[in-house]
Structure formats: structure tokens, C-alpha cells
Amino acid sequence: MTSRRSRSQLAAIRAALSALRDALATGQGMVESSLAFKRAIADATGNEYFKNFVLFLTAHIFEAASFERRIATSEALRETVLTEYEAILEAITVGDPDLARRAAWTQIINSAERNGLRGLQGWEVTRMTSLGETYAPPCAPPVSSCRAPSMPLPEGACDCHFHIIGDAAVHPFTPHRSYTPPPASLDDYRKMQGTLGLSRGVIVQPSVYGYDNRVALEALRQGGDNYRGVVVISDQTSERELREMDALGVRGVRVNLIYKSGVEVSDVTSLARKVAPLGWHLQLLIDISEFADLYDTVANLPVEVVIDHMGHMPASIGVKHPGFRDLLRLARDGKAWVKLSGAYRFTNQPDTPYSDVTPYAKALIKANPDQILWASDWPHVCISVPMPDDTTLLEEFFQWAGHDETIIRKILVDNPARLYGF
């Protein structure tokens, strides 16, 4: 909800908190104002089931008439309650889902305790810990062999997004990951790259390593000048580290808001400012159908922005969805680059060809071919469809581009050269 809420919904939440603040000051209508605040949050989620659940909890379990009588006589209790609600609003405002969940859960548990439902504090700690420890299922390996494509690729053709996965015994994965990938070395990738006729590539830090970029950086050292990198950094990453990564070929920072990576919406602006002096870009992995104010957020950043996987929205939303229309506008206005990749991540088709993705890809190319990139997304981690053949994925791109050699060269060669500095 923190990324889905619109400005009007955020304004409604703020208004509800203001009304609650007044109620606490006067001692009148405190329960009603508390319920109204929680209803405003529930409305902003757009999830009817969650909305009904929140209404049930607040109306039937955690609010009591006795609470209103007690809070009216205790200034300290009024301040405590107001601080809890302000923490929820602050987390929603900055767009931090984890912080918002924790703030809301803290308020619910404390409210239960204040109203006589005892013994939940220890369970609250256990529950909040388990929220960050989901099962990380193993991924299938990529197809080990592929064939040459039907069209020869132009010299300097670039794959703008692939991952290198090292030995987990040497470079352990973060425990707070969403999947467990198999090893995928640079040598393995080069075999596929050579068969397809690609000569350049962009190594992208996968979420399973969090802020530990060592595997990607070592691959850049091995790969040489035909490779560039996109890493994940924090506000603790030093200028010296950034300069060292820049010398290795790093040209961007990934902000992953779908798979657990330790990065949140609130990091976007601060990261952009941090890397702007280097001329780096931000690469956003987001679901554009759930991202409110997409155009204004992206267009006002002080760096170039790349949107992963065509916006990673469900293929069922349609090309007229406001989020996709914003994405088209960003590309058309030159405010964002968009990667034609990861069709299997949002298709409703059980296997290739991913025909329901075709309208989106064609619309993006039509909007502005000068802002479009292509990527294999090798080794295709964490997908729910059969493992695709990389040649088939490239052939699908040819079809999206209408087999137009000028468009294909622009997307595979010219655009990556501009963005990554080949």
C-alpha cells in the first residue's frame, strides 16, 4: 500500500490523523476518529479483503469504550497513542512498506494490551521476525544450449540485463531472499551470448546478495570493457567505494521493490542524489500497476531512470491502464528508459510465445524507440513458467520490433551505447 497510495489517499489519511489529534486534545469522539484513521488506511490499500479485515479488527476487538474514558484523563496516554499513529503516517508518507507494517502492528498490539488483551507482546516479536523470513524456493537452471537466431545481430549488440550467481559456499545469499538460484557463471553466460551473437552485456546485481556486490564486481573484472554493471548500494556506501565501482564499469544502481532486497521506495530520491555526480542511473524494478504517481516520481529524479521488465505489471491490466500510460509517457518524453525483458514474469500464458505481452512491447517501441533496451534476463531466476530457450526470447523481440533492422540496431546497439557508455 505504501507504494500504491495516491496523493489524494495520502491527503485523506493525513486529514483523518488531524481529526484524531483534535479529538485527543478535546477528549471527544476519540474512538470514532481512531476508526476513521484506520478506515482511511484500509481504503488506500485498494484491497477489499484487507479493508473488511481492518474494519472488523478495529470495530470489534481493539477499540473499547473504556479506552476513551481512560485516555481522557491521561495526557501521557494521549501522547503515546498519537505518537503511534504518527509513526504509521510517516512510514506511509515515505513509502516504506516494512516500516509501515511494523508501525501498524505495534499500534494494534499496544492497543490490545491497553484494552485488556494480555500476553501478546512476546508473540508480537515472533510474528514480526517471521514476516521477514519467508521460504526461498530453489530455481531451475537455464537451458544449457540454444541455437543461432534467424537474424544475425548487428556488431556491438548488447544484452542489458543478466545475473551472475556464484558459489553459495563462498558468497552466501542473504537469508531474507525470495528465491534460491543455482550457480550461473560468466563462462556459462558467454557460451549463450556467443551463440546468440551478442558481444556486450550488463551485469545486474540480483536481490539474493542484498548489498554484497562482490560476485558482480568480480565478473566485471573478468569480463573487461565489453561489460557494464548495475549494483545495489545503501546510504552507507562510501564515495571511495562508488569511485572504485565506477572504474570497474558500474553505471547504475538497482532499486528492487518486488523481491526482498533491503531497498525501499523511500530510498529512491536519496540514492539518486548520491549517484548523480557519477552520471549513474537508477534502475527500478517495480510493478507499475501498483505505483502511484509514477510519472511525477520518475520525471523529477535528478538522474536517468531505467524501468525493468516493461514495468512488471500483470499482462491482464491492458495497455490503457494508468500505470502503463504513465510508462509510455515517460518513454515518449525521454524521462525513462524501458527494458523489453522478463515477459515470462507477467504473462498469463503457460509457455512461449508470450502473446499477451506483445501489445505492451509494441506500444513501448512505438512510443519512443530511442528509449528502449532489450535484455535476456538470464539465468531467468524465480519464474513460474517452464524455463524458456534464450533464442526463442530473442526471436520474440524480433517480432515485437517488426523485424525492422533499423529498430533492432537502435535497441540492441545504439541505445545501450548511449546509456552505458560503451
Structure description:
The protein is an alpha/beta fold. The protein has two domains: 7-131, Up-down Bundle (Four Helix Bundle (Hemerythrin (Met), subunit A)); 158-420, TIM Barrel (Alpha-Beta Barrel). Helix content is 47%, strand content 9%. It is built from 16 helices and eight strands. The chain has helices at 7-26, 30-45, 48-60, 65-71, 75-94, 97-114, 121-131, 186-196, 214-223, 239-248, 267-275, 294-299, 322-332, 358-367, 390-400, 405-420; strands at residues 158-162, 200-204, 227-231, 250-256, 281-285, 305-307, 337-340, 372-374. It has an eight-stranded parallel β-sheet with strand order 1-2-3-4-5-6-7-8. Strand 4 (250-256), helix 11 (267-275) and strand 5 form a beta-alpha-beta unit. Helix 2 runs antiparallel to helix 3 (48-60) and helix 5 packs antiparallel against helix 6 (97-114). Mean pLDDT is 84; it is low at 61-65 and 118-133.
Summary keywords:
8 strands; GLI/LigI; single chain; 8-stranded parallel beta sheet; 47% helix; TIM Barrel; 422 residues; 9% strand; 2 domains
